[in-house]
Amino acid sequence: MNRQELIQQIKAKQSFLCVGLDTDLQKIPSHLQGAKDPIFEFNKEIIDQTADFAVAYKPNIAFYEALGPRGWESLAKTLEYIPKDIFTIADAKRGDIGNTSGLYAKAFFETMDFDSITVAPYMGVDSVGPFLEYAGKWVILLALTSNEGSQDFQVTTLQNGKPLYQEVLEKSSQWGSPDNMMYVVGATRGEKIGAVRKIVPDHFFLVPGVGAQGGSLQEVAKYGMNKNCGLLVNSSRGIIYAGKDKDFGKAARQEAKILQAEMADLLALYSEL
Ligand SMILES: O=c1ccn([C@@H]2O[C@H](COP(=O)(O)O)[C@@H](O)[C@H]2O)c(=O)[nH]1
To answer: In the UniProt entry, which residues are flagged as the active site (predicted)?
Structure first.
């Protein structure tokens, strides 16, 4: 999916919601546990109930690869089931020496047909470049993450006086463009989202951390939104585990609907969409 199509989806749905498919076998309602593929059945119901409010789905690959071959199969079926006009994110946080990154890119962009993949910047340009060689696909680079540990390295001041995350943004924004690169910026980093937006005014941000991690959607929009929205805000546990029983899909729908309504107000306030 290209940038214009993504912006169009956001405008049409008045939503910049990404639903995180962090599907944990232990948390799936008991009535699905006997199914042939409980993970897929769970995801199918979540997708059916939230597709009209979501512009992106983000399966976190750890939840699938932890189960071995059957996890990969559930992931492939889920990806196939997601409506084609909805953006897909493989949250895999990959990146390695060039030839290895090339195979990660092939795995997620060819063997599976994801629109985008999250990539770690630590190994530099030759580790990110292979993902950018795929026309129509996106790299979502970790910039300022939502976890506590983001304070260990990402905000460290370098000899040139800049925090490491700023150096990552400035350098990596030369490798790609707002048409094929996005950045992960955690919702829990409210005060810094504005600083990131100043460095990369046009790039989309994937923003995890609202819902279960307590980040504020209002703050994210206030500091991070640009005229084209420029945000995909993810909620995983807050949506998919909103209900625990047979009605889990309806509960997920309700949570997604609440977020979409807030997003529509924020789009009216801060964007041109
Ligand atoms: O900085 C980051 C980068 C990625 N994540 C991932 O996003 C979701 C968040 O899930 P919630 O249940 O909504 O907290 C999850 O897949 C993380 O691995 C992140 O949280 N922070």
So the answer is: 93 (proton donor)
The token pair at 272 is: 């041109």
Q: Find out whether 139 and 176 touch, Cβ atoms under 8 Å.
A: yes
Least Cα distance to 85 among 58, 117, 111, 51 occurs for 51
Q: Which two tokens stand for residue 152?
A: 């260990």
The residue to mutate among 153, 236, 241, having the most atoms of ligand 1 within 8 angstroms of its beta carbon, is 236
**Which residue is it, tokens 């955690």?**
186
Our CA angle for 20, 80, 99, nearest 5°, is: 80
Q: Helix, strand or coil for residue 227?
A: coil
Q: H-helix or E-strand containing 182? A: strand 181-185
What is the bridge-based pairing of β-strands 87-94 and 116-119?
parallel
Given a contact cutoff of 8 angstroms between Cβ atoms, the answer to whether 89 and 116 are in contact is yes
Cβ-Cβ contacts under 8 Å for 243 (sequence gap 6 or more): 29, 249, 250, 251, 252
pLDDT average per 10 residues of sequence, the chain (273 residues)? 98 98 97 97 98 98 98 98 98 98 98 98 98 98 96 96 97 98 92 94 97 93 97 97 96 98 98 97
* Burial (CB count within 10 angstroms: exposed 0-12, middle 13-18, buried 19+), residue 269: exposed
Q: Output the pLDDT for position 191.
A: 77
**Cβ-proximal residues to 174 (8 Å cutoff; 6+ apart), any chain:** none
154 Cβ below 6 A of ligand 1: no
Q: Which residue has the tokens 């409210």?
A: 190
Distance, CA of 272 to CA of 122 (rounded, Å) = 35
176 lines ligand 1 (CB under 6 A): no
pLDDT given for residue 75 in this prediction: 98
Lookup result for tokens 């094929």 = 180
